[in-house]
Amino acid sequence: MLPYKIKQFFFGLIKLSIVIGAFYFIYHKLVNNPELDFNRFVAFLSKKSTFSLKNILLLFFLTFLNWLFEIKKWQTLVAPIKKINLKNAFEQSLGSLTASLFTPNRIGEYGAKAIYYTSNYRKRILLINLLGNILQMAVTTIFGIIGLYFLVTKYRVNIDYYKLTPFLLISLLIITLIIFGIQKTKFTIKGFSLKKIKLFIIEFPKRALISAFILSLLRYLVFSFQFYFILQILGTEISYFNAMIVITSMYLLASIIPSIFVFDVIIKGSVAIYLFGIMGFSDITILSTTTIMWLFNFVFPSLLGSYYVINFNLPKETNQL
Predict the structure, then answer these.
(1) Buried-most residue among 84, 253, 254, 280 (CB within 10 A)?
(2) Which InterPro entries does the entry link to (predicted)?
């Protein structure tokens, strides 16, 4: 076995590598964004001259609310198996954000949060994290479907249903085959059978689920309003209702497109350009909006999270459940 000091050295090296990797991806995204040249982005914001101290403080306040609801949701969902305080939830949420920043679809968040707990909790923590993401996706889907309905009916978006039908039929066939295959095989996730996963969700405290759903809803309302607010300070003329039609549609479509999380801003930018293009908005305005949203809601929190990654220590194993 390796000596304790050598283990500590390698563990510290891994933590440092995660932080450096996150910083590099942030830098790479800003400087080498194929959708938006960084110098053009800075010049555009300088020309607008709308980022007063008041506006910046309000944007930071909205970011604070966004993450406060997310952190409180995590604390609420974990509570049935292990009580943690708000400080612990803050550390776990931001630390896992930094660790998962450059992983596909934030998959690294599952392992990052689980490692904060001893081994006897980790399987349940994985499922709880999945629950939290499902609840957030449920809110995104509900608002997104409503938004798409108004988008198609109000703005008469041209959709080629003839070309879309084969794609929908193939997708439906694949989903059916997957469901049938899962039912006929002993499907497991991290040692949990599908039956146990369903039982875990069914038996999960309903009060915690309802509270977490409400927090997911509040979080959605905050960051969608933040998107609208940035559009306003960049000089666009659009009502809140019309903006929400596009914003809710954008978040739904962007959420179902697989991506590496650090390039999430590119995915959202591309979808947003198309949707807001229907309303006649310029590409630079929409790309700047998605980039600012990314900076405030992911880059800044991940910088805070890097402190927790560097200072992270593995929990001491106990026999207590």
Answers:
(1) 254
(2) L-PG_synthase/AglD
